[in-house]
Specification:
The protein has 749 residues and is α/β, with parallel strands linked by helices. The chain has 28 helices and 19 strands. The longest helix has 25 residues.
Length: 749
């Protein structure tokens, strides 16, 4: 890249398009040498760095390709627009691939495009299905790289890339990789990161490009009416927490929140595993935990959102408690007089008492637009109910033109917002048609929302990642302002200071980062066995099993299978069922039908039963004898091998082992069995005799046992046929009539 110039100069970057910022140049120089994680505040040009690295790699290796991944389709489309604006490449060489692109077309576009933008789910799916090879890619860019933890596809894609590519290079981008040092290490490990580049607003080379952002938090007193309702709910909550403490599942009842209660649930369930008859205190603790977590949520709604939000929540709880199949926790809440007292108080007060945040939000926005009529603002609110109420109130302010911006998922009867609607709203906001965006968390990550003069947090967030992303929406083009509304003495304050502390811990952890080279580190490709292949039903491609098979070096071929989920050889077909699915298939009576089809189609049918063994008799209210009977019918009556596994990784290891035995040790071919396997000789003989009028399977067995061969059955007289039990005079006469009558295709009967 050209140095000491006002703009970046490169053959693949349009002239006078990217400002030559020193810190970006330094990061670029490091990123073209080794796999790099770039941690840079929102609005500081992560995309521009990605463009410079992509231009360098594509120019250095003209026959290679580059891939940039983003978590959502709108973000992938946005990246393509950015690259088109800055890169000197023909439009047809820049393609976006999402789940809406047909698989056959994706395969073609993978081959003919140079620069591809895609969601990681599509990349993973196409890798598993064999539609994509990463061999020719000289660069992979992972946007929002903090997601590369757990089962998110980023880790799998990075591993395949390092294994397959001739000259791999990884660039990972994020505004915050997380506060926990272990999480940062997991991101680095999963993306094969060798070097970390970190910049903050305080760094000397970034400071010239950063506009000041003023952060102000406003602490508001809850009305006394709120306190009365809160005391009713807290009284119930304290009782449940005392029960959990008495049973030994929490050390102290003070300061326990929803996250703590979810961990309590995990601990109780773990303690119950392996116990044939768990002590009654375990069930009492589970009930207390379930009631407590609902009360925690109710109190949080009251404290942070207001009476209207709490009323809607209580209405839903009380309505569900009266429905058939309601849980014990719901019934316990509905049976407690304090729940009803709280509900009646909320109904009585709701019309006259608003949460003080609403009035404060109006005050902040009104002052902003009186001072700067041409400014723009974003209001972040966690709950859609709050978004609706804010929109209703702010619409009445002079000079304020608000618009709602929510996610795609439906919430009860309320539909979500399609990607087209989201794009239209952002374009209207960009064009100035509306000047206040009231957004849920969908507005936090990645999307190209224009810089605004004011960001208002309607409530605090406990996540440092979300805090940084929200704050980064202002202070790009000019000075910015952040206002955080906090209800005194509530979770708001705890959440806010939690995010601040986590951000500080993140900065400290990143400052200590040592980025060891991965010299000598082995990857899975070092351990790959002789190539084996598995045919996978396309509906199973979304499961983790296909991904785990690929990690083991197994070639995947996705097809639509009429029978079974996996084919391991010309004689082995596998049906995979989780314990939950197995139990459900007993209830809806499809188990034996599926199993019989599997047994009729494959010489060596296998049923993989995936899940914890103890769950088989505890997940559903099915009598153990019914479960044992189903297992016996599958194994004994149908001759299907039932092989248990605990999880998707163990299932994949088992399938790979069987496939290896079949294809290498026994030299069996891999073939799809579209039709049931051929009938044995006795089955064919019974089939012929069963074709006679009035002859059932039982009678066919008797006739063959008596006459020994189908030929003798056909030759027998009426009198001889009647010697077989169950064959009377009428039936014998009809059999002889059919066998001796001249064939006439036009005969009516």
């Amino acid at each position: 890249m050209g140095a000491g110039l006002p703009y970046v100069q490169h053959p693949l970057i349009k002239p006078n398009s990217i400002e030559a910022r020193t810190y970006q140049q330094v990061i670029f120089a490091a990123a073209i040498e080794r796999n790099t994680l770039v941690v840079l505040p929102t609005g500081m040009g992560k995309t521009q760095i990605a463009i410079m690295v992509a231009a360098h790699r594509l120019a250095s290796a003209p026959e290679s390709k580059a891939l940039m991944m983003a978590p959502t389709k709108p973000l992938a489309l946005q990246h393509r627009q950015s690259f088109r604006r800055f890169m000197a490449l023909p439009d047809h060489e820049l393609q976006v691939l999402t789940g809406e692109t047909p698989p056959a077309k994706r395969q073609d576009l993978w081959q003919r495009s140079r620069l591809i933008f895609a969601t990681p789910q599509v990349v993973e799916h196409d890798l598993l299905a064999g539609r994509l090879s990463l061999e020719d890619f000289s660069l992979l860019i992972f946007d929002e790289a903090h997601r590369a933890v757990g089962d998110y596809p980023y880790a799998f894609i990075a591993e395949r890339y390092v294994r397959e590519a001739r000259d791999p290079l990884i660039l990972a981008l994020t505004a915050s990789p997380g506060a926990d040092a272990a999480r940062i290490e997991e991101v680095k490990r999963n993306l094969f990161i060798e070097h970390v580049e970190i910049r903050t607003e305080r760094d000397i080379d970034v400071r010239p490009y950063v506009k000041p952002v003023e952060v102000e938090w406003r602490r508001l007193e809850l009305p006394k009416e709120f306190v009365e309702v809160k005391q009713l709910l807290e009284g119930q909550l304290k009782e449940q927490l005392a029960l959990l403490k008495a049973h030994g599942f929490i050390p102290d009842a003070r300061g326990v929140g929803k996250r703590d209660l979810l961990e309590v649930q995990r601990k109780i369930q773990a303690a119950m595993q392996g116990l044939e008859r768990p002590p009654e205190r375990f069930y009492a603790a589970l009930l207390a935990q379930a009631v407590a977590i609902r009360l925690c949520h109710a109190i949080e709604l009251l404290e942070t959102q207001g009476l209207a939000a709490l009323e809607r929540y209580l209405v839903r709880l009380l309505r569900r408690a009266r429905m058939p199949g309601a849980t014990k926790a719901l019934k316990a809440l509905a049976d407690d007089p304090r729940t009803w007292r709280a509900f009646r108080s909320v109904q009585r007060l709701r019309e006259g008492v608003e949460h003080p945040k609403l009035e404060e939000a109006v005050k902040v926005l009104k002052a902003q637009f009186e001072r700067e009529p041409s400014s723009r603002a974003i209001v972040f609110a966690h709950y859609r109910d709050s978004v609706d109420r804010l929109f209703e109130v702010l619409s009445k302010l002079p000079g304020v033109r608000p618009v709602k911006f929510i996610g795609q998922a439906a919430r009860g009867a309320e539909a979500g917002m399609s990607q087209k609607e989201q794009a239209r709203i952002l374009e209207a906001f960009r064009a100035g048609e509306c000047n206040v965006l009231i957004s849920t968390s969908v507005g936090e990550e990645g999307l190209d929302i224009p810089s605004v003069e004011l960001v208002l947090f309607y409530e605090a967030v406990p996540s440092e990642i979300r805090y940084i992303q929200r704050r980064g929406r202002t202070g790009r083009a000019g000075p910015g302002r952040v206002v955080v509304l906090l209800a005194k003495g509530t979770r708001d304050e705890a959440f806010y200071w939690s995010s601040v502390r986590k951000e500080q811990r993140m900065r400290e952890a990143l400052a200590k980062e040592v980025s060891p080279q991965r010299e000598g580190q082995k990857v899975l490709s070092d351990f790959i066995q002789p190539e084996i292949k598995v045919i996978v039903d396309h509906r199973e491609m979304a499961s983790g099993v296909a991904r785990e098979l690929s990690k083991l070096g197994v070639e995947i071929e996705a097809r639509q299978l009429d029978v079974g989920d996996y084919i391991l050889s010309d004689r082995v077909g596998v049906e995979r069922k989780t314990v939950q699915d197995f139990l459900q298939s007993i209830v809806d009576k499809r188990l034996l039908e599926q199993a019989k089809l599997l047994a009729d189609t494959f010489e060596r049918p296998v049923l993989v039963l995936e899940g914890e063994p103890e769950d088989l008799y505890s997940l559903r209210a099915i009598h153990p004898n019914a479960i044992r009977g189903a297992l016996a019918a599958v194994a004994v009556d149908l001759g299907i091998s039932i092989l248990p596994t605990r999880d998707e990784a163990e299932t994949a290891a088992l399938l790979a082992s069987i496939a290896k035995r079949e294809q290498t040790e026994h030299a069996r071919e891999l073939a799809v069995r579209g039709e049931p396997k051929g009938l044995t000789l006795p089955e064919q003989q019974r089939f012929i005799v069963e074709g006679l009028p009035g002859v059932s399977a039982v009678l066919a067995e008797r006739l063959l046992a008596h006459f020994k061969t189908p030929e003798r059955v056909m030759m027998a007289s009426e009198e001889e046929l009647q010697e077989v039990p169950g064959i009377g005079k009428v039936k014998a006469r009809e059999i002889r009539r059919v066998l001796t009558s001249t064939y006439n295709p036009d005969a009516a009967c």
